[in-house]
Design brief:
Low-confidence stretches: 76-88
Shape: globular
Distance between the termini: 31 Å
Helix content: 25-40%
Order of helices and strands: HHHEEEHEEHEEHEEEE
Bound molecules: the ligand Nc1nc2c(c(=O)[nH]1)N[C@H]1C(S)=C(S)[C@@H](COP(=O)(O)O)O[C@H]1N2, molybdenum atom
Length: 279
Amino acid sequence: MSDPTDAVLALLRKADDLRKAAPSRAEPEAARERIVALLEDARTLLARVGDADQRQTLGAAVSRRFGDLDREALAPMLRPTADVAPAPTRVDDPSRVPPGQHLTAGWPVLHVGRMPDVDPAAWRCTVTGRVHRRTVYDLAGLAALGTVEVTADLHCVTGWSRLDNTWTGVRVRDVLAAAEPRPEATHVIVTGAPAYSATVDLATLQRDEVLLAWSHDRTPLSAAHGGPLRLVVPSRYGWKSVKWVTELRLVDRDVPGYWEERGYHAVGDPWREQRFHGD
Ligand SMILES: Nc1nc2c(c(=O)[nH]1)N[C@H]1C(S)=C(S)[C@@H](COP(=O)(O)O)O[C@H]1N2
Ligand SMILES: [Mo]
């Protein structure tokens, strides 16, 4: 098979077949490694696909499959934490639950990698990039911009939704305004310690209900849930609500963040089920 496009497609088909069969295998971990190897081979072969559009499409197909693997690896982490009281579940109001989501009684803790060391007194958040006024805030500095309360729902792309979270924090709109965005700024890369980021467009971040929050249900936000400072973007899947926020970087284009690079959707609107690239 000399055509690189056909070769990439064949590798993807093989990976898909293996993935479908993996749950019934004696050694799912070995199957997973084999899938990763196939996807790596496919990614290597991409460079030999001459047509740029074709290369782009195939590249997205490879990324999406890597994303699926990550999602499966995350599934065992979906355990509600013991220290949080059950949320009021509103099964009587299905209109508040986006398609493909189910309500969770507790509050799962979800993140990749290790938690950072958290010291609220030493916490700093920098607003930088395409701004006229680069600013470094401590928590008191953020609060001084004006504290508000927002009650909103949290929808994780892995399938759980937690309704009626009351967040206390500062409007991101006010934080951005204080930095005076340059006219070319269109998106913000939000960085969460130690090595996580998500990108959200400026207009979405300027909405009323988008906060940098330090409190949940009027209790200081626990470290596991992103304390002392996390982003809250209710109109997007949870992966955009970055925990342990250390930087807002305004940029002039959409730069894929941690999950967007791994095949997740650039926008991530739960009401449109924008889970993966191409949805
Ligand atoms: N820094 C950081 N923030 C993160 C993540 C992460 O891995 N690292 N995971 C995101 C995902 S996928 C979700 S669903 C929410 C979960 O928030 P919770 O752990 O408070 O429920 O955090 C988001 N923020
Ligand atoms: Mo998530």
